[in-house]
């Protein structure tokens, strides 16, 4: 990790530069930054076409982060991104006795997004099967397969082959069609995690 090889002030500068790129792309697509968690960003998209806008933001984030110069021979910035769509609840969470409440979203959809991010490799945008069902007409995805998340088994798909801003229906492999089950599209908003 970079924090093992660089001074704390350099790490802070690098993270702030990294976050600036992410925040710019999320806001450009109408998303909201929920919080910064260590070297990760949690963002929420709501409203019409929220999933499409989130995917566009993620593709742009990945492409912009890849353009950043390497910090050293041992570290070049990369991202892994997890996206899920579903119902969640928003509100002030924290301790009223400490007078520290933060507005955030919670729910299973949020947890799954974070877990998808954790399984993603460098440069991967990993989405849930439910998210795939909503965007399959506009984005090409590559099946990762069935993955075990904490207390869940889900199918995950990689948006890795997408080009920034490209929306198109490509040719889907027969294998992908056979493996991905038909699901009812979940209603609600989406949440994504972006991590170095």
Any overview of this molecule?
It is built from six helices and nine strands, in the order ααββαβββαβαββαβ. The strands form two sheets. A seven-stranded mixed beta sheet has the order 1-2-9-3-6-8-7. Helices cover 35% and strands 30% of the residues. A hairpin with a 2-residue loop joins strand 7 and strand 8 (152-158). It is α+β, with helices and mostly antiparallel strands and 196 residues long. Helix 2 (8-28) packs antiparallel against helix 3. Residues 160-192 have low confidence and may be disordered. It has helices at 2-5, 8-28, 50-67, 108-119, 129-135, 174-179; strands at residues 32-37, 40-45, 80-86, 89-95, 100-106, 125-128, 142-149, 152-158, 189-195.
């Amino acid at each position: 990790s970079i924090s093992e090889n660089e001074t704390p002030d350099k790490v802070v500068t690098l993270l702030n530069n990294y976050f600036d790129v992410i925040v710019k792309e999320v806001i450009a697509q109408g998303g909201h930054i929920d919080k910064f968690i260590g070297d990760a960003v949690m963002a929420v998209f709501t409203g019409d076409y929220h999933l499409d806008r989130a995917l566009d933001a993620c593709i742009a984030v990945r492409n912009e982060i890849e353009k950043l110069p390497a910090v050293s021979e041992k570290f070049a910035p990369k991202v892994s991104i997890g996206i899920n769509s579903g119902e969640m609840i928003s509100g002030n969470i924290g301790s009223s006795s400490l007078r520290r409440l933060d507005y955030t979203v919670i729910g299973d959809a949020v947890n799954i997004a974070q877990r998808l991010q954790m399984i993603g490799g460098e440069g991967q945008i990993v989405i849930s099967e439910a998210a795939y069902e909503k965007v399959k007409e506009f984005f090409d995805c590559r099946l990762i397969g069935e993955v075990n998340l904490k207390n869940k088994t889900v199918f995950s798909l990689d948006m890795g082959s997408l080009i920034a801003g490209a929306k198109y229906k490509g040719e889907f492999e027969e294998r992908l069609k056979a493996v991905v089950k038909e699901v009812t599209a979940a209603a609600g908003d989406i949440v994504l995690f972006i991590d170095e």
